[in-house]
TrEMBL record:
InterPro entries linked: C-N_Hydrolase, C-N_Hydrolase_sf, Nit1/2_C-N_Hydrolase
Name this protein carries in UniProt: Predicted amidohydrolase
Keyword Isomerase: no
UniProt GO BP: asparagine metabolic process; glutamine metabolic process; oxaloacetate metabolic process
Organism: Thermosyntropha lipolytica DSM 11003
SUPFAM superfamilies in the record: Carbon-nitrogen hydrolase
GO molecular function, one term: omega-amidase activity
Oxidoreductase in keyword set: no
């Protein structure tokens, strides 16, 4: 099977939604010029990550941001994982959602963040996503022709059973838009992404925003791409950049044959049954 070139657009997020969409468009174009056929945007790429203002950025589907994503996917003939945006459903609930479009501009799936970031680290960070977002409850596998993948969102990656479920359902890659804080990112970002790659023998694409020193919530950055052996094959810094890597889909099968973890996973034991 042919290799697949992928890209992360690590973009700085501003207050103006139109500016964020413009920046995303520019970085998508840059990624495509460098050969990327699957492009990933960061978590909450169209709005500042502030719980007090996120509701004002929420969109129903289809809306300005998803129409933008659809257009770019079709225009460039790429698979486009639209990071995440605040999505409002028909009942008025708001979710932290990822919209995935194929190379024809067709919507292939929506993933809503299942595990919400509600934390209080003394003298470091207090943040409650549940003040704004409802939690999703379903994980899906996107049938990419070269490498089927699932999307997890940021805090989801701290729950290994959620990633394992994606792998058991057929995912060979996890795409994780993730805006880690400076504290948690420094100590845990790379560790978690490599662990999820090794646990499930999958590629991991972790897409962070770039750090904005003027933002109230400062992100870690350092987007990365990890192979199914747990090796970091591409990594960014804290600023704006496009991170690229070429993936060999056959490597997933090779490693899973050598170490058949998924076949040996005793699911009933995990569920508390014997």
């Amino acid at each position: 099977m042919a290799n697949l070139k992928v890209a992360v657009c690590q973009m700085k997020i501003e207050k103006e939604k139109e500016n964020n969409l413009k920046k995303a468009g520019e970085m998508i174009s840059e990624a495509v010029k460098k050969g990327a056929r699957l492009v990933v945007l960061p978590e909450i790429f169209n709005a500042p990550y502030q719980t007090d203002i996120l509701p004002s950025y929420a969109e129903t589907y289809p809306g300005p941001t998803t129409l933008f994503l659809q257009k770019k996917a079709k225009e460039h003939k790429i698979y486009l994982v639209g990071g995440t945006i605040p999505e409002k459903d028909s009942e008025g609930k708001i979710y932290n959602s990822s919209f995935i479009f194929d190379d024809k501009g067709d919507l292939k799936g929506i993933y809503r963040k299942a595990h919400l970031f509600d934390v209080d680290i003394p003298d470091k960070i207090t943040f409650r996503e549940s003040d704004v977002f409802a939690a999703g409850d379903e994980i899906n596998v996107i049938p990419h022709p070269q490498i089927p993948f699932s999307v997890l969102i940021c805090y989801d990656c701290r729950f290994p059973e959620w990633a394992k479920l994606a792998a058991l359902k057929g995912a060979k890659m996890l795409i994780i838009p993730a805006a880690f804080s400076l504290k948690t990112g420094k100590d845990h970002f790379e560790l978690l992404m490599r662990c999820r790659a090794v646990d499930n023998q999958v590629y991991v694409i972790a897409a962070s925003p770039a750090r904005n020193q003027e933002a109230s919530f400062k992100v870690w950055g350092h987007s990365m791409i990890v192979d199914p052996w747990g090796k970091v094959i591409a990594k960014g810094g804290s600023g704006e950049e496009v991170i690229l890597a070429t993936l060999d889909p056959s490597l997933v099968d090779k490693i899973r044959q050598e170490l058949p973890l998924l076949k040996q996973t005793r699911v009933k034991l995990v569920e508390g049954e014997k």
